[in-house]
């Protein structure tokens, strides 16, 4: 999947792509045709940088309901000829998830689309999972024949069916089909289930990787084999060292950390850092200076995991470095520094935004640190990250930091956060938004009554309406 093109944050499309609460509020006041066009654009061209963890489906489904939006564009997208050529989940996953939420709200047209796509579409397993949560038994039983027809009856087809049954996210349809009154269907599904269970047992009986009795050298060689195959194994290899290494092996491990192969060096650095070895910090600094890109990354990761006072003190010395180790030092101080480190954390935050923009991965930790340390003068930078980032998770972290640093948050961003796409951000807003704005009271009551809303959000809402809560 290509990286999505995100529109400017001041446009309706940009707001909706980011999942911001202001996107919904602007869409409801915009011309309906314009709002629906922007909404369809988002649903059909997934705007998330990480579609597996960021939430948008409930956010877009609610907007379809508020706009009384038709699903013609979604239908055309799902059943386009491209569906045969591109079976990646990322092409249709968001649209199917939106249909799932709409079906749970009682939209019959969404339910029928899911049924059709489960019977005919490439990403049928996702559609079936959505239906497993929302459809009745009769609707699911009607899909048994078209779904099983996807799998040939030869050995290869039966193996594929067994894998589909074994890996199903929602097992309800398969359980229904295993009890289907049509014996050919029930027998085939039961056989696939048994084959899947047997395959899982066989895999458990054939473990790969280190065995008891391995030496330190064998662990290093295994880690290097992973590097040569393109698989980084130094993290599990370092855990193996904990089991196999003794005090007499320390010289060999130190030597590997200085000049071993890439796999051995990464493994040794991780092991030494996790065990707070007195030479770990010096070896990490050496690795950043002369190691390969893989070694540098492993050294930086190992340093950030350290919890010792010595590591925090070294971070204060390294925070001004203009390299990966300096950036890691800023993140360590954000996580484990004291109030006296506020200037260093703020400097790292500003530098990251200036140098890498509002979507820099390092900002996740630095934003959290600004909130943890209560750095009030970080509020302007946090507000910029909140507005501009395309990551709804990072925006939620910025909102949490603003709640701790910005006195205007409750009357400002907290209000729009009640409509945010991420439930954790809505929960934060439910606890902080000032109720002087009539939209806040109305929205809180709607969230409390919405069966699709997360329990944590509704708990936060109830805390505002409870007998001991301030008057709303």
UniProtKB/TrEMBL annotation:
SUPFAM superfamilies (UniProt xref): ARM repeat
Stretch list, region Disordered: 451-472
Top-level taxon: Bacteria
Name the UniProt record assigns to this protein: HEAT repeat domain-containing protein
Organism: Streptomyces collinus (strain DSM 40733 / Tue 365)
